[in-house]
Amino acid sequence: MPQCRWSENVTETAVESFVAPDLTISIEEKLLLAPLHVLTSVSGVCTNAINLLILTSLGIRSSVSVATVALSISDLCTSATEMLIVVSYIISYTCQSCPVDFRSIAYIPLGWIRYPGFFISSCITTFISIERCFSVVLPFKVKQIFSTKLTSIIIILTCCLFMGIVYQIFASITVLYESVSCKYFDQSDLNYMVLTFTYKNDSSETEWIIDITCAMFLSLLSQAILIFCTVWMTFTLRSSSKVRRLERKDHTNVAGTQCKGWLKGSALSEKERRLIKVTLCLALIITGCNVPRYMTLTLFYTIFITDMAAWANTSLILWGMGDFLISLSYSSNFCVYFLLNRKFKQRFRDLFLNSKLKKK
């Protein structure tokens, strides 16, 4: 759901837009983002639960398997939190006179709990790309460099780093039980006591630190490393395949035979092509889905922050679309594994398809 920036520099008009949004934000939330977030959060939970089941059944024997399992756990937890946000959001609309402000629960505590998951998943994907790159560049040393123990330590430290930075915001959150008087969509006046979440003081500086360190610097750094390692790995594989192709050509000439299929086909082996496809797909998905969020952050701190009241609805729409794309990336990993990993596809069939056929 759209991320809320509850800072003291937001004017009263901007805060009221969360209680009585105009037609544009109402259509966007009810008809567009709400169904999309329901779909992506549920699919994210289901697909990552399947990923965990299949990956653990295949065995956790290498650094890549440790990283892919950690990625599935991170995506599962983030998708589950997203689903709780969606449920809270739906309750806030269906039960408008509820004594608990579920909208503030969705936007403040749950929203910040979910926030580190965006960056943790991105960093784990980057780590997978780095490991795959080293397996091509330094194939005889990769297991010594990236042991399962070292991989586990790096992933744990990454999680602690982002959660430690982001969860500073919880020092500014407080729970209040206050009287609310507002007009809802039917123009009726409602006065009741509500348990709500808000900030004790101005949290804009804390939010700025979190966004600059996590969302911009660390996240963009991991994206740059991800793209660099993917390009480097692809270039190295292509270069080595050309050497093998020339060697095979010389060998067939000496033997007096021809190998037309080899010369006409791709110089890369089937395993190498799958490796490139998997790494490229993961890199494109995580990068493409994060670009809208980087753009929204840039607009937020350059344009929106100058007049939060005027840009409140536009900000909500952009935050919502950015969160939707990132949530969509969590369920797309299953499609990449299923289409490009033979062992994953076979185990999925054994667990879910062949077992059903046997029961029949």
UniProtKB/TrEMBL annotation:
SUPFAM superfamilies xref list: Family A G protein-coupled receptor-like
UniProt xrefs under Pfam families: 7TM_GPCR_Srx
Entry GO CC: membrane
Main localization category: membrane
PROSITE patterns: G_PROTEIN_RECEP_F1_2 (PS50262)
InterPro entries: 7TM_GPCR_serpentine_rcpt_Srx (IPR019430), GPCR-Ligand_Int (IPR052954), GPCR_Rhodpsn_7TM (IPR017452)
UniProt domain G-protein coupled receptors family 1 profile: residue ranges: 47-337
Transmembrane segments: 150-170, 208-235, 278-304, 316-340
Keywords carried by this UniProt record: Membrane, Receptor, Transmembrane, Transmembrane helix
Compartments, as annotated in UniProt: Membrane
Name the record gives this protein: FMRFamide receptor
